[in-house]
Amino acid sequence: MIKLCLSLLLFIFLCSCQAVKEEKPSFAPPDVETNDTHSVQWKRVVERGDNAAKEKRWKKAADFYNHALDLMDEPIATPQAPSVAQIKKVLRRASQAQLLAENSRKQGTRSIFECSTMMRSNVRGLKIIRHLIPVQFEFGKTIFSEKGQEYARQLGYCLQHAKGLNQIKLIGHTDEKGSYELNDQLSVARAKALKKYLDLYLQKKGLKLDIFIEGRGEREPLALDNPDDYTQAEIDALNRRVEVINKRRKP
């Protein structure tokens, strides 16, 4: 009887050890869990940007999206590089939110930090040559709005401090109100107005930059990921935009 009891106890002990051995591999190593936390950090910031956009807090949304881009670009914060499609998606949302954001900066103040968001050159090796600039105009005119005037100054400041940049192209766009012909003319006239401003700005700084212009009227409405999140007035504002394309001349 004593031998039988000892045998049963030994059997139960061996089964318990086996159960422990089988459970152990199910736990991920601590470093794996840490890396996973880093890899999704930018996604959480994008979600906060999406929530701010749904609430029409465009400045806050732009800040969140740009912060997410900073995280995506940092190997320590994001060891696993995001896909090109993911980067482009966040770039679009950051640009669109910035176009609709109220100008919270005091008039006349500019900084290199703002250039890093307005004229971001790359994210994780993805070169960015096309930028949406919040230079807005009065309805049906080539006169800058108050917000557009300040962003024109900021663009001039960024071009002044850009390294290795000697050519840009300005592309004017309009909303769909009005005829094709009038909108084509208006988009060209607005690109010319911005070019004239930038030429004078850079000339005062003793700099020369080749600036080309193009107008595309209403033919290229901005592609929106979630069009239902925008009012028609906001969609029109997004389409009344100027794009800047970097063109670096080969040495």
TrEMBL record:
Name of a matching Pfam family: OmpA
Keyword set includes Signal: yes
Keyword Signal: yes
Annotated signal sequence range: 1-21
Main localization (coarse): membrane
Top-level taxon: Bacteria
All residue ranges annotated as the OmpA-like domain in the record: 124-250
InterPro entries xrefs: Bact_OuterMem_StrucFunc, OMP_bac, OmpA-like, OmpA-like_sf
GO cellular component, one term: cell outer membrane
Gene3D superfamilies, A to Z: OmpA-like domain
Localization annotation: Cell outer membrane
UniProtKB keywords: Cell outer membrane, Membrane, Signal
Name assigned to this protein: OmpA-like domain-containing protein
